[in-house]
Design brief:
- The protein is built from 14 helices and 16 strands.
- With about 425 residues, it is α/β, with parallel strands linked by helices.
- The strands form three sheets. Strands 3-4-2-1-5-6-9-10 form an eight-stranded mixed sheet, sandwiched between helices. A six-stranded parallel sheet has the order 13-12-11-14-15-16, sandwiched between helices.
- It is globular and about 65 Å long.
């Protein structure tokens, strides 16, 4: 089978769960003898504006191609100028590309960077299109459906698109993040993002409100039409299914299949420490959408002689009396991190489509507690899911969570077999 994946790119330029998952799937498919191709959004050219697709060589049997002058990638902050995300593109570049590689199926991992013509040409050539719901871009102007400390999927109005994009970076700045210097820019960008309200003010162009409503309405419809060209949705959780069907209609064709992570041990590590005080941990960025502030609040509410609270995965910027901040860690020492903690808490506020960190905790034998906004709650007993800070505090104080629930980590071989079943599914 010839399989084309569209992904955001490869490490070190790109990182995150989507990139990791796509790379896992592609590598495994190659090892199983499939002909696998990867297309990713690449550099932006100043003098030549047309989209092009350039061959970038082979990597372990994977044939890679770069989409030059793709649409910008609004990985954070929304969309400042809608017209830059929905202009007409020549279909010829995609016709030539599809004729060159002749894919049987196209597996899309995000809509970011792609024009509608990509999907229209695939549809006209009767190439199956599968979409994995890693993020919500296209349903919203940014990937997380999250703004002003809350998810707005249940009130997905044009006004909210405008509001969620009020601090967006200019198209020029977004294109800068697609340069080969992105790893350096990403490090600098964290400082930029912490002050992006100011940047947004500097960049903001005063536009007539009616004009903005019209433009964002067109953008919303543009992406809705793209979604209608997708043959099958691979929902990575019941939560992502519910969000997508609420926005696109319950009749969209799709199937829920949980995902997996090649980095997790396949044989569960038997571990359940009970240090005194109990060590409660958060692993991830210190961002609002991840529920960092809620974890901090819980650390302040519970008795410090019974619990200690620890964070991993970001560079501390300020001191918190109730938190022990361990900072970033070497992935090769991940087992030491999990050996240290007693309970992992995943308190996301955005409706996280899955959450690979949950799999990681399970694989290392650590009890995991998640908010009901985390898609990977599908893998956990109900006793380990909370809705509010109060519920989380109660679960911890009463020790009422389940410790051993014998979840078997799905192997990558097993998951790729499931995905191939989707490719071959009749519809």
């Amino acid at each position: 089978m010839k399989i084309l994946h569209y992904t955001l790119g490869f490490p070190p330029e790109r990182s995150g769960g989507l990139v990791q998952y796509a790379e896992d799937i592609m590598s495994k498919q190659v090892s199983q003898g499939e002909q696998v191709y990867a297309l990713y959004p690449g550099k932006q050219r100043i003098l030549k504006k047309e989209m092009e697709i350039k061959r970038r060589g082979d990597c372990g049997g994977l044939k890679t191609f770069e989409l030059i002058n793709s649409f910008p990638l609004p990985i954070f902050g929304g969309i400042k100028t809608p017209s830059d995300f929905m202009y007409a593109v020549s279909s010829t570049v995609f016709e030539h590309f599809f004729n060159l590689i002749e894919p049987d199926v196209i597996h899309v991992h995000t809509l970011m960077g792609l024009p509608r013509e990509f999907f229209q040409v695939a549809k006209s050539m009767q190439i199956r299109i599968i979409f994995t719901t890693h993020d919500y871009f296209g349903l919203a102007p940014e990937p997380n459906f999250f703004f002003n400390s809350k998810s707005y999927d249940e009130n997905n109005t044009v006004d909210n698109w405008i509001e969620a994009s009020s601090r967006a970076l200019s198209t020029r700045k977004l294109k800068l993040f697609q340069s080969r210097y992105y790893p350096l820019i990403r490090r600098i960008g964290k400082k930029v993002l912490s002050n992006r309200t100011v940047l947004g003010t500097i960049d903001r162009v005063e536009e007539d409100k009616i004009h903005r409503v019209v433009e964002y309405s067109k953008l919303k419809e543009y992406y809705k039409r793209i979604f209608r060209l997708i043959d099958l949705f691979h929902f990575n959780s019941e939560l992502s299914r519910s969000v997508y069907t609420s926005q696109l209609g319950s009749d969209i064709n799709g199937k829920v299949i949980s995902i997996t992570d090649s980095a997790c041990p396949q044989n569960l590590v038997s571990r359940h420490n009970q240090h005194k005080p109990r060590r409660i941990a958060y692993i991830g960025p210190d961002k609002a959408y991840k529920g960092f502030s809620e974890f901090l609040d819980v650390s302040r509410r519970l008795r410090r002689d019974n619990f200690s609270f620890h964070t991993f995965g970001y560079t501390p910027r300020e001191n918190f009396v109730t938190l022990v901040q361990h900072g970033k860690y070497n992935i090769r020492r991940i087992e030491h991190v999990y050996d240290f903690i007693d309970v992992l808490v995943v308190p996301s506020l955005w409706k996280e489509t899955f959450g690979l960190i949950v799999l990681e905790g399970l694989a290392f034998g650590v009890p995991v507690l998640v908010s009901d906004n985390v898609g990977a709650k599908d893998l956990l007993p109900k006793e380990n899911v909370f809705s509010t800070e109060e519920e989380l505090c109660s679960i911890l104080e009463n020790n009422s969570y389940r410790v051993n629930y014998n979840y078997k980590i799905k192997t990558l071989d097993e998951h790729v077999k499931e995905i191939k079943g989707l490719y071959n599914l009749k519809w």
